[in-house]
Amino acid sequence: MSVSINYKKNTIKKNPSNIVLFVDEKFNILSLKKYLKNSEYSFISDMFKTKNLKQRILDFDINSKKKIILVSLEKNLSDSKVENLGAKFYDKFKDLKQNEFVFNSETIPNKLKNLIGYFLHGLKLKSYTFNKYKTKKNKNNISIYISGNNKPSLKDQIKFRSIEEGTFYTRDLVSEPGNVLHPDEYARRLNALKKDGLKINIYDEKKLKKLGMNTLLGVGQGSIRGSYLVTMEWNGLNDKSKPLAFVGKGVCFDTGGISLKPAKFMEDMTYDMAGSAVVVGLMKSLALRKAKINAVGVVGLVENMPGGNAQRPGDIVKSYSGKTVEILNTDAEGRLVLADALTYTEEKFKPKFIVDLATLTGAIIVSLGSEYAGLFSNDDKLSNQLINAGENVEEKVWRMPLNKNFDKLIDSKNADMQNINYVGGAGSTTAAQFLQRFILNKTPWAHLDIAGMAFSKYGGALNSGGATGYGVRLLNKLIEDNYE
Q: Do 235 and 377 reside in the same domain of the chain?
């Protein structure tokens, strides 16, 4: 199902089947009198007696071909609440056969600036479906027209559309099965993003070996597919100011390697590349809206398979940083991919900060469920910016501890460190503590463990289940509020 939104006056039909009007929280409709026929006004006034006014969206069938819909606006509505209201609107009317809606923006109080933009943004985000492999597709299209002058500016329209496209691209990548979106195909798709204005560099296995990225290469060596590091640069400023850096784990499928996972739910491991997909969706969004910043996205793309050449428990590898790692469990692979990617990003781009994202540990789901991503950071300012951005767009993060006392849990007798904590406990923290060792120059850094947020079996406020795209809107908000 697709949703089209048109702001042009001359495209609005004279007799639309569905008219959408906005009212206050008490459903006072006196102000709507000039937009309704007397008979319609009387009918709606009378029908209020049969309606549950606690609902925020009420509809009235004027006749078999016409419906009037009232959307009630509470006082002090935040942008995220308006988006959620738009998502509820979609859920309520998505199966309506008469699928053309005219929103009268003149009925929105002027003080609620950009309300229609956020409302339709939420509606669009909720409308996403991944039906690429369905032989029978829902071809029902919703057409929305906006009348009146209370509309978002062209700049804001572009912003909303770019965030939607970035989020949908992330969801598409996460939703693809592992036999389709393996590292070779993923790298090919990223190369195609040059058309959006991104500078793309792809480092294949030959280049990675030359660079000494052995922790990343070790994860993918059991697969017949290649392993890659891909950098995506957006230069929205003419100066050479330090970029903002975003790094993502791209394990296209994770069997666990030799430390094989249980069969149950292993099919969900197609989304173990969600961290990288968020970085890709963010970079696409920044390019589409021509963000006034310099930014770089870096993703490590591998497939973790138990092949004849697979990495073994007990192997010791030397990272790009020069530090050595003893592999005690091949299923703790994401931190190995990120280790090389983080050091390379810091050294190559010298960024203002680095934010990495990964579906890194099941332990974070035990801690925070599917309500918050785990935030680990060496910088209070960056942490607070992420927390505030998350609250604003309802993609929440919760700060978790880092402390040198955890280091003893990942120190190795045979190498500089080991890739898991064998003692037990603090699984998410020791993983983050491991990553922190690869930030060599005290660059402000934050790690987001999104294992509980990247995929939802039951859906959320702005998604209908499956890949959520969590992180794209969060990081866009971080940039918009603090760095543009």
A: yes
The CATH number for 109's domain is 3.40.220.10
pTM above 0.85, yes or no: yes
- Cα separation, 40 vs 454, in Å, equals 46
Per residue in 179-219, pLDDT tens? Answer: 999 999 999 999 999 999 999 999 999 999 999 999 999 99
Backbone angles phi, psi at 286, to 5 degrees: -60, -40
Note whether 110 and 221 are same-domain residues.
no
For the beta carbon of residue 418, count every other beta carbon within 10 angstroms: 22
Same-domain status, 286 and 428: yes
Range of weakest confidence among 34-48, 210-224, 400-414? 34-48
Asked if 144 and 120 count as a contact pair (C-beta separation under 8 A), the reply is yes
Let me know whether 167 and 136 are in one domain. no
Q: Are residues 235 and 125 in the same domain?
A: no
Rounded distance, CA 57 to CA 73, Å?
9
Tokens of 149: 């002058």
Show the domain range for 376: 160-482
Query: Phi-psi region for residue 148, left (φ > 0), alpha (ψ -120 to 50) or beta?
Result: left
- Give yes or no: residues 70 and 179 share one domain: no
The identity of residue 415, as a single letter, is A
User: Catalytic positions, please?
Assistant: 261, 335
Q: How many domains does the chain have?
A: 2
Whether 62 and 19 share a structural domain? yes
User: Where residue 201 sits, what CATH number does that domain have?
Assistant: 3.40.630.10
H or E segment and range at residue 467: strand 466-467
| Residue partners of 77: CB distance under 8 A and separation at least 6 | 85, 112, 115
d(CA 362, CA 452): 8
- Kindly state the tokens that stand for 454: 């990247």
Band of pLDDT at residue 325, cut at 50, 70 and 90: very high
For 441-451, write each residue's pLDDT tens digit. Answer: 999 999 999 99
Identify the H or E element spanning 324: strand 324-326
List the structure tokens of 303. 């497939």
Query: With contact defined as beta carbons under 8 Å apart, do 140 and 99 qualify?
Result: yes
Residues 142 and 16 placed together within one structural domain of the fold: yes
